[in-house]
Automatic annotation (TrEMBL):
Pfam families: Cu-oxidase, Cu-oxidase_2, Cu-oxidase_3. Residues 41-150, 216-322, 458-608 form the Plastocyanin-like domain. Belongs to the multicopper oxidase family. It comes from Magallana gigas. This is L-ascorbate oxidase. The chain crosses the membrane at residues 686-711. Keywords: Copper, Membrane, Metal-binding, Oxidoreductase, Transmembrane, Transmembrane helix. It comes from the Eukaryota. The lineage of its organism: Eukaryota, Metazoa, Spiralia, Lophotrochozoa, Mollusca. One of its GO terms (molecular function) is oxidoreductase activity.
Amino acid sequence: GFPVDYNNGTFYKKISKSVGSTNHVCDQIPLTEDELEEVLTVDGNYKFMFAINNQFPAPTLVFHDQQVVSIRVYNDMSNEAVSFHWHGMFQTGSPWMDGVSMVSQCPIQPGEFFTYQFVASPPGTHWYHSHHGAMRRSGLAGAFIVLPKEGDKREDIPPVDKDVVFLAQDWQAAASDIEVVKEMAWLMYSFSKSSGKLGTQMRTYDGSISSLTHPISRALVNGKTKSFSASDTENEKAVPMEIFNVTQNGSLLLRIIQTGMTGEYKISIDQHKLLLVGSDGGDLIPTWIDYLIINPGETYDVMVFGNNTPGNYWIRLETTEVLDFFYNPVQPNVSFAQLHYQEAEEALPDSEKRECTVSEPCVMANCHWSPDALKRWEPNTKCVPINEVKSTPKSVAQVPVPIPTSENDLQEVFLNFHFSGSDLISPRPAVNTIHYKGPPVPLQLYPNIVNDQTVVCNNQDMTTCGDYCQCTHVVKLSTSKVTQIVLMAEDGLSTGTAHPVHLHGNRYYVVKYGVGVINETSGLLQGPNQDIEYSPDYRSAKWRNSSWNNGNIPDMNVKDPPLKDTVVIPYKGYVVLRLKTENPGFWLMHCHLETHMSVGMAVVIQVGDPMEMPKLPDNFPMCSSYPAYNEPDSKSKSGSGEKSGSNHMEDDALLQLPSTDGGSTKSQSVRNSYHRDDYSIMNISVGWFVLMMILMVLFVFGFCALSLVLISRHCTWTFPARSRRGYHDIDTEERVVFSK
Ligand SMILES: [Cu+2]
């Protein structure tokens, strides 16, 4: 793209040069019709971003259950490699189509294409996104809807008049996503380069850190947002906002998908209750709610009814930030979309939220805080954690909740998603104190590499790891037993964040939920939950009460728990999952905050022995044998959603529905390049400031010393393994394949 300007009703291509500290506009050339078509307005700021078929958000893909999907991805980017994950798809029999770079496939290099082919299953609201690097929020994500088979319609929910996609995501106008990940990698996000100001992290209801790394991040709905703040620019106020149309007494199914990079949102519609009917492809017993908490990676189906006075109502996406880093109260950040009754005139809403009262309390679904923490901030609000949201009887009958028949029939794994390190020395994202590092060749294509202890490690063999354990962390599970996974988020630090954890290739029942200990007076977290005993290094854990072993955990919901593929672990709490690991393959399990996942908060779940895994197709592209793009096909490249003429595509398998009433974010107004620097910051007292500066100086000195040590180690140890020749320890035959 290029910077564009909007002046007196005309869009200009702006050519400017900076001389010294000032920016000189050299020329303004009006945009051509074709160029106008390609303007994506988003929040009204100029930003480098990615697009699929020139669309943002990426096109919505719709299939039917059990249909064979064939999608050809052509990497037309100049420098970045890419791979696509079909989030929520089981990939039964096709683990190499899961799209995880260096786990299921080699990344697709610029100029190359790769055809994904798999069976669409299970039905429900899913999505697709890049699974290489950090490009998801900046455009490489879209809805992936699997409709039930013809005639397999739900009868337990009211009729749906309109079925629409609602993609919610955070958005950072100033920094690129790579920069945000980089900040996280070096834990400098509290001294953000983009804001130049100290301490931008906020806290949520229980005092844990909000997962939004930058509090100003505005939420986008289907790629749109609009500012109503007096301090914002004309263009930020002029860009269109997403509008969902409903008719009086009509109904709307909103397929809400959180495609964001870092932040969770609390979604509500003024003066309208939401009927929660599904999540992550699982059908839920319909439940009325007022607020939906949604984290990156999750999807929820909610119905809205035109049962109020025809008019215009705000749809609110609020952050859950209520305290600054130093525990001073702050107002949560709010972004908007709009619910419009077609009988009413088009206007900006002047609606207010319903007040939650003792007699009519509000209901907050997927609430991951203790009710004792929530009540201080959200009075008269019922906290419904995810394990209390119920699957429909039909769903449980189709996928029974796995119950072990004997001690031997259960395999239990404790996985701690945390930051390893101390409060003072840069803690890093990890699982069981192991920082995930991708293998040199994709596991699914070279499964025998799991036997190589210089690459793969786990907690059974920590001898090769040392203090700072960074490797391809693989946890192996058997295909024949009931699996119980206990997810935890404990690091022994004074504060941290909750983590939304996604499992590929499988879904699980969420049977129990536990939160940390809350201080009765302050309502803030004061320590870890009391049900789990952690080893001092947080590498392993066990139930404090041994009678909880062998799957005998009290108060589990094994009758009708929800089926999920992404679940939030409360900070200092835990979640218990039950599943049948019947799908052999290498499946990534990771925190869905890109800032955590990209720098090590991930683990590979190996289901079954390589011998049990489906056989790789003979002509499957290995890293060196990707076909070059040799058939110029401008249609499929330039997009506009047109189907490619290639025979890789099952034409009738791909329906492209209009995403929502509002369409995409095509040009209505644009603005020039980015000038704003108004991050909301905390008021920092002089004392704190001096202390922080001293710590910072100490940190810099320590860091320099550490860097010298690391650089010297790096140069002598690891350079040969990173040679462009590829992984030097695999056998000669494979090495030839891998070489370019
Ligand atoms: Cu995380």
